[in-house]
Structure prediction request, 329 residues.
Amino acid sequence: MTRPIAVVAGATGFVGRALTAALIEDGYDLRLVGRDARDARWHDLESIRRAVDGAALIVNLAGKSVNCRYTDANRDEILRSRVETTRLLRNAVTDAAAPPPLWLNASTATIYRYALDRPQTEADGEIGTGFSVDVARAWEDEFLAGDLAGTRRVSLRMAIVLGDGPATRTLVNLARVGLGGTQFDGWWFPHRRYRGIGPNASGDGRAPWHRSRGRQRFSWIHIDDVVGAVRFVRDHPEMSGPVNLAAPHASDNRSLMATLRRAVGARIGLPAGRFMLEPAMWALRTEPELVMKSRWVVPGVLQGAGYRFAQPDLEAALRDVVNTLSPDR
Prediction:
């Protein structure tokens, strides 16, 4: 019996490794796409066409990590690496004699606005402004462009993924060095790292800040539920369009950091204002947006379709993840 083929782009990242392992477990043969992948490379368009033709499934996770400083060069590469790779895959699907019936493309829950007042669902969520939002909009616009009548397309709007990945390691490191207290937004020297990008750049170019008093919301999802949700979407052909990948109960920063301190065994955690976090995040070579933006996202489509989360509780999810991370990482 012929095994189904899954095409995976971006398989070497944290989420990609978990999904490729799951697909192999589910009986798929894999065709990998990447800069130096074994089956297809981004600079070789014909190899991408061969990989896509006849596949049962595409999972596209390609894109430069956002766990970096938003220099001009990094900003441009974050956008380019998402939009161009998605365009190459879409062109290959368009040209395929036997196009894949399902294409799952990564996106981000950061597409929604800063929210303290109400959660954002796929049905009524409001799109935000600025760099991260513009990247997400351009990414999804490229993914959904054109007519692919034989291919169901789903945008996976992922919240912060808890697991052996960069976001979790940053949070754990902050807690372990004593900065695991509540994180307060506030004024900082003006900069333009978060200004809009692309032909339809949004926002006024100024770096936003809010007096959230540590109540900025934190939407998250455990890596086990990323895998579970992908399997669930695959097996429910009525699902298409954007799907929020987020646990049903968002935390806030105050509760997140208290839970994280317990998980890592930190007895104290200094509260940190933006004036402390900016230099700390500079030293960690990442951006304060990870803990300063209020992301309040709920999985309306998944819950409406009956998905049951394996890790719905933040404390249990953090303890599970922290136990897999070595202290020096």
